[in-house]
Structure formats: C-alpha cells, structure tokens
Amino acid sequence: MIDKSKWYQMDILKILDGVKGKVLDAAHFELLQHAYQLQENNVLQLKTNNLAFKESNELLKEKLKKHEEKIEQLEGELSSVKKALRKQNDDDSEKVIKLSENATKVMSKIINEDVTHFYQNAIIDVMDISRISVEAALDELMDYGLIEAYSARKGYGIHYHLTSKAKKAIG
Questions:
Q1: From first to last of its 171 residues, what are the pLDDT tens digits of the chain?
Q2: Crossing angle for the helix pair 26-94 and 4-19, nearest 10 degrees?
Q3: Which residue of 20, 39, 84, 99 has the lowest C-beta tally within 10 Å?
Q4: How far from 51 is each of 5, 44, 61, CA to CA, in Å?
C-alpha cells in the first residue's frame, strides 16, 4: 500500500519540477494550490489521529494503574490468607488431641499392631473392653479425623483405615 503523505509529496515535487524555470500560469497555480491543500488536510488528519492516540494512551495508563492497584490489593489479601493458613496449620499441628481412655487403648492397639487398615470386628475381638466401648472409641477417632470408614463387609463390620493426619501424628 502506498503511503498517501509520500505520494502527495512526490506529486508536489513533480509539479514543482515541471514548472521550474517557467512562468506560473493559473492552471499550474491551481494544481499547486490543490496539492498543498491535500497535504495540509493530511497533516491535520495526522494531528487529529495523534491527539486521539494520546487520549487513548492516557485512558490505557489509567486502566493499567487501576489493574496494578487491584493486583497489589489481591497480593496483599493472598499474603494474609497464606499467613492465616500457615498459622492455622501450625495451630492444628500443635493441637494436642485429648482422647478418652478407650479411644487411647484402641489407637495404641492399632499403632502396636502396625496396621493401617482394619475391620471393626477384628479390633473388637482383640480389645479387652466391651463392643459398645470399642464402637464409641472408633466413632471418637473418626470425629478427630484419625481414622475413616470406607466400606463394610458382612461378618467383618466396617472397614477402617488410618488417615494421613493419624500417620503424621504417629510419625
């Protein structure tokens, strides 16, 4: 595509070369005047476009500033949330779980037997406390998030497994 401003300049230069050393008559004068007016219109359009670009640039700068401020605010909020989460995790890891006597017995048996998965009836059979006490202890261990139930089998009862929280606490 031909750049119009260069085309007008070349056109004006051709006209000037054509009239060089000649008397300027009315036709040549009008031709030059028209070429200069086109050139002036082109310059005015370029100035208008330049102003529009400047305004657009200013608006984009304002928008960018707002986005940067929002990013800064969100980074601050994220930092606060991360800090609160770390504090909560630290508090959770330092929190001592106070188990009942029966829940302590059941957990000790699980640890001493070095099992990570077990059936309800199997643990009841090896404990020296009542069935109801073992079931209550298992419920308590589930409430503290130390064990989870994930299936049941006829004759064996509920199938439990140690959670990652319990494994971490055991070490």
A1: 445 545 445 566 776 777 677 776 787 778 778 888 888 898 899 999 999 999 999 999 999 999 999 999 999 999 989 888 888 776 665 567 888 999 999 988 988 888 888 889 999 999 999 999 999 999 999 998 899 988 878 888 888 988 888 887 776
A2: 160
A3: 20
A4: 18, 11, 15
